[in-house]
Known about the structure:
By secondary structure, the protein is α+β, with helices and mostly antiparallel strands. The protein is built from two helices and two strands. The chain has helices at 4-17, 27-36; strands spanning 39-41, 52-54. Strands 1-2 form a two-stranded antiparallel sheet. Residues 48-56 have low confidence and may be disordered.
Amino acid sequence: MITIEEQIVSEAWMSYFGEVLPVSGCPDLAAQILRDCGVDIDLLNSGAATIMKQAA
């Protein structure tokens, strides 16, 4: 079963890279890669107001 965090990271990955997330089960690592690429993703607040936008 996929967690909310994994779903958020998967959607952000698809949006940014245009392909499916190549690894599963480690949303923190994938989220860090996205942050390093300039994507603002907040897994701590994923239950209510998740921020996922490309940094300007």
